[in-house]
Design a protein that fits this description.
The protein has 9 helices and 9 strands. By secondary structure, it is α/β, with parallel strands linked by helices. The protein has 2 domains: 70 residues, Winged helix-like DNA-binding domain superfamily/Winged helix DNA-binding domain (Arc Repressor Mutant, subunit A), CATH 1.10.10.10; 125 residues, CBS-domain (Roll), CATH 3.10.580.10. A 4-stranded mixed sheet has the order 3-4-5-6. A hairpin with a 2-residue loop joins strand 4 and strand 5. The radius of gyration is 23 Å and the shape is elongated.
């Protein structure tokens, strides 16, 4: 059973306002009670909602949570991705370190002419500092992991498949990319970021029943 958007809205309303009557649900959604009757009947029969006469509808978390998990798995990366932190390849290692800590991120994406050419992590930057490199003058391109050795995701990938990439490649984040036009080799344009932190938040919402 796949939930419609209206049915998801009904669940959210019941969860926040239980017990709540069908009339109040309809009023909050801007529909008539008769319009919602098939949805409420189906969701009650499926035990997603519990209906008590003269009391109202209640949220049944044990039945709803599997649908929430399925919904998250099928979401697209573009629905949940965050804003990437990017520097150009000629930025100094020192300035990149400063940006990383100011933005409080675990990795930064490196571009040339707005195209992805590499990625640098906290571990990469730590190695440069330990190696006593001249971080004030040396460009970040000397410390980054270069494309094509950077794992990435596409905006239309599912959250499930992108999460598998995080695990398989043992990385904290994936740049979300799209192919830029033009002649010659396809260029990668960074449009977002998909991270372990983001996945943790999604599943924390499940645990807390906040989805």
């Amino acid at each position: 059973m796949d939930l419609s958007e209206r049915q998801k809205d009904i669940i959210e309303i019941v969860k926040k306002n239980e017990p709540i009557s069908g009339e109040k649900i309809a009023a909050l959604l801007g529909f008539s009670r008769s319009t919602l009757r098939p949805d409420l009947s189906l969701m009650t029969l499926s035990e997603l909602l519990i209906a008590k006469p003269k009391v109202g509808y209640f949220y049944n978390a044990h039945r709803v949570e599997p649908f929430i998990i399925k919904d998250i798995k099928e979401k697209k990366v573009e629905d949940v991705m965050s804003i990437p932190v990017i520097v150009s390849s000629d930025t100094s290692i020192q300035d990149t370190i400063i940006k990383m800590f100011l933005e409080d991120v675990g990795s930064i994406y490196i571009t040339e002419r707005h195209h992805l050419v590499g990625l640098v992590s906290r571990k990469d930057l730590l190695k440069t500092v330990i190696g006593k490199m001249n971080i004030e003058e040396m460009p970040i391109s000397m410390a980054m992991t270069r494309v094509p050795n950077v794992a990435y995701a596409f905006s239309n990938d599912s959250v499930e498949s992108a999460t598998k990439k995080l695990v398989e490649h043992e990385v904290d984040s994936l740049p979300v990319i799209e192919f830029a036009g033009g002649e010659g080799p396809r260029q990668l344009k960074v449009v977002g970021k998909f991270s372990k932190t983001l996945i943790s938040r999604l599943f924390l919402n499940i645990i807390k029943n906040e989805m």
